[in-house]
Amino acid sequence: MASIQQDIPIAAAADAVWDAVRDFGAVHVRLAPGFVIDTRLDGDVRVVSFANGNVVRERLVDSDERRQRLVYVASSERVIHHNASMQIIPEGEQHCRMIWITDVLPHEIASYIAQQMELGARAMQKALGRPRLR
User: What is the CATH number of the domain that holds 7?
Assistant: First the structure.
């Protein structure tokens, strides 16, 4: 199994970023507009339509307000296992860091997922704060 991590600095207050992350049905509007073009809720599942044409079902596993951490699993025809978490870490009043970790099978799809996560990270930085990816 591949484990992919993005460490994303964001020039915005942690509470504001967390508010966008936990808004599970508004990824296309608040979190990663342009990268995600539509999100539709179906109970605890969001159907995410990406700009590249992929459509993925993501089920909410946990949303932890205290730790500002969201966990979800995704399913599609190409992926056997996909578990991801996003956690917001404050770094001063107007800066934070998002730690986005995805565990995925099959291992062969890891490079594609890593590329998509990088594109998603850049879209989040643009939507939430000054773009600067490490």
Answer: 3.30.530.20
The domain tally of the chain equals 1
- Is 107 among the domain residues? yes
98 CB neighbour count, 10 Å cutoff = 23
Q: What is the domain extent for residue 90?
A: 2-128
Between CA 115 and CA 55 the distance in angstroms is 16
pLDDT on residue 130: 53
pLDDT at 131 over 70: no
Cβ-based neighbours of 8, under 8 Å, separated by 6 or more: 97, 98, 99, 100, 121, 124, 125, 133, 134
Classify residue 11: in a domain, yes or no. Answer: yes
Tell me the DSSP string of 75-121. Answer: EBTTBSEEEEEEEEEE-SSS-EEEEEEEEEESGGGHHHHHHHHHHHH
Are the beta carbons of 22 and 133 closer than 8 angstroms? no
Task: With a cut of 60, say whether residue 134 has pLDDT above it.
Answer: no
Mean pLDDT of 41-66: 96
Query: Which pTM was predicted?
Result: 0.92
Mean of pLDDT values over 51-58? 95
